Amino acid sequence: MTVLAEGRSLTMRFGLLTAVDSVDLSVNSGEVVGLLGANGAGKTTLIRLLLGLLRPSSGEALLFGALPSMSTRRRVGYLPQTLGLYDDMTVQENWTFTAAAFGSARDCMPAGISGSKNELVGTLPLGLQRRVAFAVAFSHKPDLLVLDEPTSGVGPLNRARLWQDIRESAEHGAGVLVTTHNMEEAEQCDRLVVMVGGRVAAEGTVAEVIGSRTVVQVTCDDWRRAFAVLDAEGLVVQAQGDVLRVPGSPQQVEALLARHDLRGEVATVPANLEEAFVSVVSGDSRR
Questions:
Q1: Which alpha helices (DSSP H) does the chain contain, by range?
Q2: Distance (Å, whole) CA 124 – CA 19
Q3: Which CATH superfamily is domain 214-270 in?
Q4: Distance of CA 98 to the CA centre of its chain
Q5: CA–CA separation, 150 vs 11, rounded Å?
Q6: Buried b / exposed e across 14-35, counting CB within 10 Å, b at 16+?
Q7: Average pLDDT, whole number, for the chain?
Q8: What is the pLDDT of residues 148-193, one digit of tens each?
Q9: CATH second-level architecture of 3-206?
C-alpha cells in the first residue's frame, strides 16, 4: 500500500485553544479510514490541515508525499460538511465548473442527479444536495477521497449506495478518509481513529478499538422500570429489545436493581463499537 496522506505531529492552535494536538495520521491506498469523535474533537480541523487549507502551528502534513499544493489537491475528492457547492448555480453548472477546476474530462452525470441538472442547488432538498456533492467529489476519479460527514441528512437507501461507492473506490485503489457519527458506518471502515479533545485517543481495527471492553447485560421482566432506574443513576443504558446493556460491574448493577426490588439475570458480555466509543470519549483508556 502507498501512503496518500500523512500528518506528522500535527498541531493547530487558535489563540489559547488547541484544536489539534500532536496528531499522527496516515491514509493508504485501498483502505477506508474512519475518523471518529464527538463534536469539537478536532476532526474537521485535522482534515483541513491534511489538505493544506490551514497551516499547522507545528508538525507537517503531506499529500502524496509532498506538501499540499494545487497539483496534489487535484488528486483529492473533498466533500466538506458545507458540501462545497454553489447554491446559486445549477447542478449542471456545479458539475461543469468542477470538471474545469480539476482539468478532468466531463463524464456523464450520474442518473441519480441528472434529473435535477437544471435546478439551482440551493433549491434542492438537503438529501439531494448531498448526493450532488458526493457525485461531484467523485467526478474526477480522485486517488484520495476525504469525506466529512457525507451521509448526514441522507436516507437509509442513499446512505447504503454512498457506502457502496466508497467501498468500490477503495477496491479500485483509492484511499478514503471519512468522518461519521454512525457506528454502523464506522464498522465498514478498515481502520478507525478516535479523537478526543484534539488528540488521538484510540486507533486500529474495530476489534482493536473495542479491545477487552465489556458491558453488563441485564435481562429483566420489568425492563422498562429497570431502564428508568439505571438511567436515573446516571448510567448510559441501551435497550436492545427487552435486554438492557449498561457499563459498570455486575455487582454494581445488581445492587442498584435490588435497591428497587428488581430482579433479573445480570451477565458480563463483550462491548460493541458504540459502547467502546462512548468509553473512549468518556476518558476510559482500557483496551
A1: 43-50, 70-73, 91-102, 111-114, 126-138, 156-171, 183-186, 206-210, 223-232, 250-259, 273-281
A2: 33
A3: UreE, C-terminal domain (3.30.70.790)
A4: 25
A5: 25
A6: eeeebbbbebebbbbbbbbbbb
A7: 90
A8: 988 877 778 878 888 888 999 999 999 999 999 999 999 999 999 9
A9: 3-Layer(aba) Sandwich (3.40)
